[in-house]
Amino acid sequence: MTRTIGRMTIGMLIATCIAPFVAYDLANGVAVGSLESQLQRSLVLTNRAIETEIERFRYLPKVVGEDARIRAVAGPDRSDASLAAANRYLETIVREAGPADLYVLDAQGITLAASNHATPESFVGHDYSFRPYFHNAILKGEGRYYAIGVTTGKPGYFLASRIDSAGKPPLVVVVKADLSPLELTWEAAGVQTAIADQWGIVFLSGNPDWKYRPLVPLGAEASGRLVAERTYEGADLAARPPILPDDASLPSAAAEGPTLMLREGKDRLLARFSTVEPDGWRVLAATSTADTAKLAGFWALAALIAGLLATGALYFLHQRAQFIRMRLRQGQLLERMVAERTQDLALEIDMHRKTEEELRRTQEGLIHSAKMAALGRMSTAIVHEVSQPLAALDATLATAGVLAGKQAAEATGERIVDARSLVKRMQRTVKHLKTFARKDASELEDVSIDTVIRNVVELAAPRAKTLCVTPAIDAEAPSPVVRAVALKLEQAMLNLLLNALDAVEGRPDPSITIRRTQDETCVAVAIVDNGSGIAPEHRGRIAEPFFTTKLTGEGLGLGLSIATTIVRECGGEIRFAEAPGGGTSATIRVPLGKRDTGRLEAAQ
């Protein structure tokens, strides 16, 4: 398969070299065909525009010749009054109908009346017998011709009709139509359109450089006729180069001319011809092929890119096939290596799982040991707290026995009530100790922070009594709810309170304040004492495991480390700072519970 793909890659590379030329030729042919269709539509529209412009005045000479004022100037008996009436009539027709000029010739070609009789360029008295339109009108009844006016120097299209009157010589009525609006329209639109006469001389053009230029070099007959008829008097036709290439001939007067390629400066033009009858005019429409070459070049480039991409894809497949074959050879070796590594990883994972379980049990053991250590630190005070109610209970029951012997029922009942009160006191103390000492779960829950504070204060009460100090609680109602493990949070807070009690031991004015504050996200409980404080050299190490400043045997130095771990499990932190006036401020910050967080957001 690899060899097949390689041969396909070579074949595609050869095809890629050929494809741009084929694509260029096809795209150029399609584009040229589109331009030819566009030119053909343009020729149809141009022919209709020319015919429409001529048809406006086609019947005007005949209609004007039927008027009595025109017929009155025929024959030798015409008067000055009839000539004046004919001039005014022609002037009115031009003003209303809109041709350039309108005039009447006698049978010898002399102008008798004209619409411009009152202007310096008046046709009256001029001889126009040399014009072809006059000869055709006399011989055939109608004549038409395009030329530059010998009197006004302005080009126009002359339409002539013979007017016959009984017993009088014929008259010829001529209308001169101005076709320059067509030229101005083409020039404004920027289209390459032109009209050439039967000899190939361009007399109207949207390209000013083409005007009065021959399509092909003029022959002797054409030059002689143009001079004799004074068609383009004032235009130097011989000095203007032909528009068509040297090897081109004048297009025939067919209904549809051939497609030619012209060169106009640096631009190449595609040109088509059509014919306007009955004058045998050639209408030329041309357009630039620059966009055609660009389009063909684009498709050639696209074909080249597509071929290169296809070749690259095949080459990639060839390389990929070789790579896959190499990978297959390495497959068995890799599978063996993976199997061996998988077995090693399974052993490592099992060892990690056992180690993590052992660490978890060890951590729980350390936390429980820390609880027991805290209870040990309070053992003397707890024994005193329990022994006092026991001694009082013994004395109370003895008194109740004596009173019962004397049948003093009321006094005996009072003593029994006192005894029950003492028993409840001991039960409460023992209950707190049992709850604190048990191994608890680690599931986070919503906990009332004030309940935790009260439980911690009650647990540390025996120790506080021995030091003659009562912790003051500074907290405003209501109690916020935090997200924590209740017993673990109590353990961390009890450890900080016991440290505060140890710090104020021996002080003449011991003082401990538990201050609770909160913000939008957290609750802070600060335990502030007026002890000796933390030495500067010890501040960075107080939370380290096994670090302690107490005497040997008084502690392992795990209390603050475990407390810090517990608070971090609850998403909080412990901060130590120097209290105002001396002493230490230990602050526990834990996040608010879901209930209080929702209430704060609703309040905002």
From TrEMBL:
Bilayer-crossing regions: 296-317
GO molecular function: ATP binding; phosphorelay sensor kinase activity
Histidine kinase domain boundaries: 381-594
InterPro entries named in the record: HATPase_C_sf, HATPase_dom, His_kinase_dom, Sensor-like_sf, Sig_transdc_His_kin-like_C, Sig_transdc_His_kinase_DctB
Tagged with keyword Cell membrane: yes
EC numbers: 2.7.13.3
Annotated membrane topology: Multi-pass membrane protein
Record localization: Cell inner membrane; Cell membrane
Main location: membrane
Any one GO CC term of the record: plasma membrane
Known catalytic reactions: ATP + protein L-histidine = ADP + protein N-phospho-L-histidine
Superkingdom, taxonomy of origin: Bacteria
Keyword tags: ATP-binding, Cell inner membrane, Cell membrane, Kinase, Membrane, Nucleotide-binding, Transferase, Transmembrane, Transmembrane helix, Two-component regulatory system
PANTHER family: C4-DICARBOXYLATE TRANSPORT SENSOR PROTEIN DCTB (PTHR43065:SF46), SENSOR HISTIDINE KINASE (PTHR43065)
Role according to the record: Member of the two-component regulatory system DctB/DctD involved in the transport of C4-dicarboxylates. DctB functions as a membrane-associated protein kinase that phosphorylates DctD in response to environmental signals.
Protein name per UniProt: C4-dicarboxylate transport sensor protein
Origin organism lineage: Bacteria, Pseudomonadati, Pseudomonadota, Alphaproteobacteria, Hyphomicrobiales
